[in-house]
Amino acid sequence: MLRSTSGRLVNALKKSLVSPTRVCAINAVRRSHDGPQESDEEFDARYEAFFNRRDIDGWEIRKGMNDLCGMDLVPDPKIISAAMRACRRVNDYALAVRFIEACKEKCGDKVAEIYPYIIQEIKPTLTELGIDTPEELGYDKPELALETVYEQ
């Protein structure tokens, strides 16, 4: 039995060390980003429909939010409202507040212009769902912050 096992092992090693007689052809394929372009309205409708699904769960909500946060854009208020409703359906209040914070961060240096508009547009949804903004919760300033010695 040992002889048959060692014989198989030797045959397997010989086959792996011997160069194959046939040469495999390798085709170079160039992948480009020139595929079909999606309009802004189609993009908004796609994400709004994603968050409006009745069977969505917490993981899928986080995945959609993570995808949005990874893009070079600030989500439209329609998308944010749909995400707030999805968070409420799965009863995840903290996720809703964190997503509003993430949208504020996405505004970058235009936060004074864009963020008030977003809050103005989603405020009816927030009131309907009973969700407070990070500013209403006091999350916009640190709890235990001390004055720096450099600002005196």
Structural commentary:
It is built from 7 helices and no strands. The longest helix has 19 residues, at 111-129. The relative contact order is 0.08. It has a domain at 40-137: Serine Threonine Protein Phosphatase 5, Tetratricopeptide repeat. With 152 residues, the chain is mainly alpha-helical. Helix content is 59%, strand content 0%.
CATH class of one domain: Mainly Alpha
Largest sheet: none
- Pairing-aware structural class of the strands and helices? mainly alpha
Q: How many beta strands in the DSSP annotation?
A: 0
Tell me the name of the CATH homologous superfamily of one domain: Cytochrome c oxidase, subunit Va/VI
Run of helices and strands? HHHHHHH
In angstroms, what separates the terminal alpha carbons?
Answer: 87 Å
Radius of gyration: 27 Å
Low-confidence stretches: none
**Whole-number average pLDDT?**
85
GO molecular function, one term: metal ion binding
InterPro entries: Cyt_c_oxidase_su5A/6, Cyt_c_oxidase_su5A/6_sf
GO cellular component, one term: respiratory chain complex IV
Pfam families: COX5A (PF02284)
Give a quick set of tags describing it.
single chain; 152 residues; mainly alpha; Serine Threonine Protein Phosphatase 5, Tetratricopeptide repeat; Cyt_c_oxidase_su5A/6; heme; ubl conjugation; metal ion binding; Cytochrome c oxidase subunit 5A, mitochondrial
